[in-house]
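hey m, so remember when u said the tokens were messed up on ur end? i reran from scratch. heres the input so u can diff it against urs
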Amino acid sequence: QQVNPKTVTIGEIILVKAGEKVALDGKLKTEKAAFNTAALTGESKPDTKYRSEAVFAGMINLETVVEIEVTNTFEDSKLSKILEMVQDATARKSKTQLFIARFAKIYVPIIFGLALLVLILPLFFVQDYSFKEWFYRSLVFLVISCPCALVVSIPLGYFGGIGLASRNGILFKGGNFLDAITAVDTIVMDKTGTLTAGVFEVTEVFAVHGDPTELLSYAKAVEAHSTHPIAKAIASYHPGSPALQAEKTQEIAGHGLLATVNGKRTLAGNSKLLDKFNISYPAELRQVAYSIVLLAIEDQYAGYITVADRIKPDAKEVIQTMRAQGLYTVMLSGDKTAVVNEVAKELGLDKAYGDLLPEDKVNHVQQLIDQGRRVAFAGDGVNDAPVVALAQVGIAMGGLGADATIETADVVIQNDEPHKILSAIKIGKITRSIVWQNVILAMGIKIIVLILGAGGVATLWEAVIADVGVALLAILNAIRIQQKKV
């Protein structure tokens, strides 16, 4: 039965099935369980929790049904705290007013006043003043000054930009965000789910002696008996490698696995496992940034396998293009600093920070804003929602993104591809260009015809044709946005 978080009290036991999100903070009552914490902390590596350890709302149970004793009510849960931060950040975020709204407040009264002046002023300066003639001229003035071209073509330009974006898998939640994204000079991004795929894969197999493929076969035989995500990544890697069978497999909690493979005692796990069995190995392996599985065969160190979150195929090219366009690039992540630095080095980012909590990300972005930078933040996890709300332009990587982040964001990228960030900026610039072309076209022609109308050169029919003609030209120009390629 579905748990209603708002009705559960402290001390109650809740069941969480495999694949479900934990609804409330609590203590694990089951012996152990693996949780995906990427949406909550930004940590790409699944977290194994043991009995009595704390688990938090928003974590996803990966394997079997687990029991959790509730320790916090819904209002006091970690997830609720993050949502409160979203509200605070949203309150500090200024709303950009559309150009047409600001313009109309000034334009309409000025034009009406000028039309009155066209009617009244000649009374004091023209000897043969004719009320009928100057009333006609004031009507011509009013007709020509009618803001139809602006009122119709400017919103149509924004609608066209939104339509162009949607055809490219990008959702803008308003025309004002098309304006805002063109002013951005700093792109801040999360790591997991934004620049990396959030999927583990083997990155290196190193064997002290012999063929790495043989070492991989031993590792796969052992790891096939584990349900840990890292073990699954190794077990599914390189399907063409020779198949071996493991016997007498024994799991040593928090360390790794012990088994007999091909008649040889084989260890596969972290450095603590080899320390436990007094097996020496290179000390520098403790400093490896990515997740590493050490292997020992017959009590001799045999090599290692590194497993890491996969960088998205277009991420490096995107970062290079951003920097070439003069954008300052920053990565903020809850993942380990060593991992973050490795990814940042490979991608060529300007700055990168790891081991960050949601409030730390907010502080970093606020510092950039205080420095006068126009910041766009792209992220996908629940932990990214507060900073997405704070940034001048919040971008949610929507394909795998958390609901809270998508709801908070100004722009949603539906397929999680980083290059769509550049596409969104380009669409914003195209839209701004078309809109300003319409503004200059409409105002330029109107000012010329207004002068002619006030001087009695332009007739009322010419004024009507000029007004409608300018509106049609502006509309056709706005429609051009739909034909643009990004």
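this time it looks ok to me. DSSP finds 17 helices and 20 strands in the chain. if urs says something different then somethings off w ur setup not the seq
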